[in-house]
Design a protein that fits this description.
Chain lengths: 219, 226
């Protein structure tokens, strides 16, 4: 008997991309269902009544919400031979720490960079660069955040990469100039089929942001 | 026990985040050395070295390595000491649900409750509504279980510690009544079960001390009227 896996998602979401990458990494067939966040579907509201947000992973009818929780769920349910999280408790804790860091510290500033103007936007840009530098320092000279194998923190961060172009344009800065090792890491990740399949082209995101701003009523 | 094996907790006496770590260590019967860090006065060089990213407590030190962020620490303890008092179920789906509700209590509900008590007057009504909504989902999730974890305290109960203990005191100090027995009978019952637990009650900070702290830091709502 096969598993039924459905993903309720929104194509530009760097959170949704995490779950897409995780499923692809494990070679799990899933039914991708694009959601209109401005006109939320009954299934979205039913499966995530608390937050009404994407991504929602539905496995054999049961919903799992929150992208990093989904990534861990996928890892635990389909262990295989490429675990996202190491078995050593300390290494696991480090991975979760950085996943939490990305959620709490990296996402917020990006919103200010493309969504705000003037001082607010500048503050967002400054904060974003600072946070990326901390991540770059954590990466060091490793191939991936976990070492030699692609894992949890890589999955948590890589979705932001396709947003880099539009962020650079809006904030008038160069991420490569500030964090060359991080760009090199991102390019390595993009060579993976799971990532290439799951991330939209940067151009698409760059074209999309002005439309998004209109939709949510800014500018 | 040799030096490497020893567990240290850097914490703050009144912090629900800090107490989460102590609660889990005590429930699992793990001895530890507690070090008070008065972060509001001065962050010690030791703290800045052990948690350079966030510079906050709690921090757990074990085998010479430090771990920060209370819920990350709780899962580390769970992964390391596997034989006593499990905080999470075995089944991956049940685990994902526990993590979801722990995150919800921690990220969303706690902040809403705090703002409802002490946020700006202009936003009070909106915050109180959000607080009701947040608690409503937790009330439903708890249902008739003794704890969110079932018959024993689990990750969600620990993550919701603020709601079980600190919030009651915050309500008294601020004069804003939200989590009443009438509106949330199950959460009310749960909070009493939680704070009366033999191990938990030894860890909780004294009520009078917290009350004095809240009143001093935030004043009383009546006096904050613009």
């Amino acid at each position: 008997m096969g598993d039924e896996v459905i993903l309720l998602d929104y194509w530009p979401s760097m959170f949704g991309m995490r779950t897409r990458v995780a499923l692809e990494e494990k070679n799990i067939k899933f039914d991708y269902r694009e959601q209109d966040l401005f006109n939320k579907s009954p299934i979205l509201l039913e499966m995530n009544p608390v937050h009404k947000k994407i991504p929602v992973l539905i496995h054999n009818g049961k919903p799992v919400c929150e992208s990093l929780i989904q990534v861990e769920y996928i890892d635990e349910t389909w262990p295989g031979d490429n675990p996202f999280l190491p078995s050593d408790p300390y290494q696991r804790a480090q991975a979760k720490f950085w996943g939490d860091f990305i959620d709490k510290k990296v996402y917020g500033p990006t919103r200010l960079i493309w969504g705000a103007k003037g001082e607010e936007q500048e503050a967002g840009t400054k904060e974003f660069i600072e946070m990326l530098k901390m991540l770059e320092s954590e990466l060091g000279d490793k191939t991936y955040f976990g070492g030699e194998t692609f894992g949890y923190v890589d999955i948590a961060l890589i979705g932001f990469y396709c947003w880099f172009d539009v962020l650079e344009k809006c904030g008038n800065f160069s991420i490569e100039a500030e964090c060359p090792k991080l760009i090199a890491w991102a390019k390595r990740c993009m060579k993976r089929e799971s990532v290439a399949k799951s991330l939209p082209d940067s151009d698409k995101i760059t074209k999309f942001v002005p439309e998004l701003k209109k939709k949510i009523g800014i500018e | 026990m040799n030096q490497e094996e020893q567990v240290q907790v850097l914490g703050l006496w009144g912090s629900p985040f800090s107490k989460r770590v102590e609660m889990v260590l005590k429930l699992k019967g793990i001895p530890y050395e507690y070090i008070e860090e008065d972060v509001y006065v001065q962050k010690s060089p030791r703290l800045l070295k052990l948690n350079p990213i966030h510079k906050k407590v709690p921090v757990l030190v074990h085998q010479g390595k430090s771990i920060a962020e209370s819920l990350v620490i709780v899962e580390y303890i769970e992964d390391t000491w596997t034989t006593s008092y499990p905080m999470l179920p075995h089944d991956p789906y049940e685990r994902s649900m526990a993590r979801f509700w722990a995150k919800y209590a921690d990220d969303k509900v706690m902040l809403t409750l705090w703002k409802a008590c002490w946020g700006p007057e202009s936003e009070r009504e909106k915050m109180v509504e959000e607080a009701y909504d947040g608690l409503k989902y937790l009330e439903e999730e708890l249902g008739d279980k003794q704890f969110f974890g079932g018959e024993t305290i689990g990750l969600v109960d620990i993550a919701a510690d603020f709601i079980a203990y600190w919030f009651g005191i915050a309500q008294e100090a601020s004069g804003v009544m939200i989590m009443t027995a009438e509106r949330f009978p199950k959460l009310q019952r749960w909070s009493q079960n939680f704070v009366r637990n033999n191990i938990i009650k030894e860890v909780l900070p004294p009520k009078e001390k917290l009350m004095a702290l809240f009143k001093a830091q935030f004043g009383n709502n009546a006096s904050n009227e613009a």
